[in-house]
Amino acid sequence: MTFNALALATRSVRAIAPYIPGKPLSELEREYGISDSIKLASNENPLGPGPKARAAMLQAAQNIGLYPDGNGFDLKQALAAKHGCDIDQITLGNGSNDVLVMLAEAFLDAGVEAVYSQYCFAIYPIVVQATGATAKMAAACPDTHPMALGHDLEAMLSLVNTSTRLVFIANPNNPTGTWVQAAALKRFIASVPATTLVVVDEAYIEYVQDGDFADASQWLREFTNLIVTRTFSKAYGLAGLRVGYALSHADVAAVLNRVRQPFNVNSIALSAATAALEDVDHLQKSIQLTASGMQQVESGLKKMGLRVYPSKGNFVLVDCGRPAAAVNEALLRQGVIVRPVAGYGLPAQLRITIGTEHENARMLAALAIALK
Ligand SMILES: *Cc1c(COP(=O)(O)O)cnc(C)c1O
Known about the structure:
Structural class: alpha/beta
CATH architecture of the largest domain: 3-Layer(aba) Sandwich
Shape: globular
Number of domains: 2
CATH class of the largest domain: Alpha Beta
Helix content: 25-40%
Radius of gyration: 21 Å
Strand order of the largest sheet: 2-8-7-6-5-3-4
Number of strands: 13
Bound molecules: pyridoxal-5'-phosphate
CATH topology of the largest domain: Aspartate Aminotransferase, domain 2
Number of helices: 14
Low-confidence stretches: none
Mean pLDDT: 96
Distance between the termini: 51 Å
Largest sheet: 7 strands, mixed
Order of helices and strands: HHHEHHEHEHEHEHEEEHHHEEHEEEH
């Protein structure tokens, strides 16, 4: 009999469609025999980490023979000061992805339910599926809606009942770039049963310039069932280090701590993230670069006659008006990696990260050729 590892996996795991990450530069260059390619595929900060984080990493590398601080005290203390919360409300993760996994492990099981939206971040269905819980997906806002493809909070609320343990809301959402209004989000959180935890994923919040935007972390005192996740992977430029965190009621954090790996965040990451919080200059520079790059990319795409969805992240979703796979292939041949999103049910769209001015210009020129 032939060996079939998949057949040995649990029923829940067998049903998971594996996550397809953005193509790394090295893989593209190996496959196509090219060099000097650019990656605008995974919403990373084109500047990478700032000088303070870089220095902290080198320093921390001296002590790598020791286990990291399993409680992440210094980083938690800096985060507690930033958010005006207690240290025991913070759960650190190996990326916020790790926190999402912990949430699912801790609160989901066969017999309970989780709710998310169509076109939501791909990790939500994966973490839910792995637990055997029932996933309920709400239809997104229709194409004619000003927030086309975005989360429809009314539709999501209609799927929530007393068996719903987790609701996932990315604000802004990836891959759509869409967002929900502050008042509507607050009403949503107030409307769900106390037995339903609402996870508001704010991976891109640093990029949001809008003064009216919901910073759900400010509502933690009001809602014991609110969990806010943040990451150092995007605006802070530390994607390769893997650091993220959740803010929640202390009792929720205590539950998450039961399933957390004791040393889930490594010592270089802990030091770099702590230093990154102090580097306000670098954060501002990164945000500024993305804001001007967003104008450059949006206007360039619109000049080509393409539909660009409104985005508050560091990326845009663009409708190619034809199957995006061929467009993507033509971009790859020119050394430009963007993100196909057919796996999200968006076969005509591409998600493009805002890069440096030069990278954006190169992407726009390559796209013009790809569309010819
Ligand atoms: C990128 C992203 C994250 C962050 O993932 P990390 O594991 O922290 O790198 C979380 N949520 C969304 C919606 C994202 O796009």
